[in-house]
Amino acid sequence: MQKTAGEIAEILHGRIEGDETVVLNGLAKIEEAGPGDLTFLANPAYELHLYKTRASAAIVADDFKPVDLLPEGLNLLRVENPYTAFTQLMQWAAKKAPIEYGIHPTAVISKEAQVSDQCHIGPLVIIEAGVIVRDNCEIHGNAILSANSKIGESTTIHGGVFIGKGTEIGSFCIIQAGAIIGADGFGFAPQSNASFAKIPQLGNVVIEDHCEIGAATTVDRATLGSTRIGKGVKLDNQIQVAHNVSIGQNTVIAAQTGIAGSTSIGANCMIGGQVGFAGHISVADGVKIAAQSGVTKSIKESNSTWQGTPASPIRDYQQQQIELRKLVRNKALERIDQMEKKLNG
Question: Is 243 marked active-site?
Fold first, then answer.
């Protein structure tokens, strides 16, 4: 990075309290930072680390007031929102060099595909007939783009990704390594002889602009119509999105969540890890669901928070847990068992 504290203050529209000329070489967590590092304090729970940090500078809020002596040589960079500022700085530091356009000689591209000459196509990539790849895309090694799929401009497809036939991916998306987009949904019809006949999956997957799909996440194609991921959605690693699911814009979902078929999740939702959704239900906009919850029915209250299995409003869930602990603590269940034994003679 190698920027002075003053130069970084200009980038973040902040102000330095200390030495503007100190050179900062890297970014680090507050408890691990050393000389030459820039760190930040956003969560009050970490404030004690600030008084022990070896960092050369720390991003803090405009209204931050130290309650103890700061380490010698620590300079403060005051901004309106430290977390947002540090995120912006990380994005700036992570900016990569312009992509090198070109097609690796081992890539296999159909003559019936339309691939912009302003793209990077890596080794052993397969691009089938009818595929369209727009400008400034990166398609990395061993990715497969099946027939008639479409990739919008400035989208990155990482190594080992499979894109099923007819999939449409928007612009400025990131598909992380090993993701499977557009494989068949889980559709089987029970037969009179107790076997199951496969139901053809004739739909597709549509991923709108500015989405990110995590590593090893699977998004199944629709039986009919589209499985749809809305603009700005962020999916973590190892998530299962079943056929005909729809996810509203700017919703974020953490790892190992499973969403059964034909479920609709609204916009601006926040879903914790390992949440399970039953099929054919809907979730309103702005809903938050705590990790490891099981959502078995539709949630109609916008901007509500749910927890537990089956999921219930979080205050109801917390009250249930309090009452259960009271029962255990007071040995109520044991006393009830003894009373039953006496009554039954």
Answer: yes
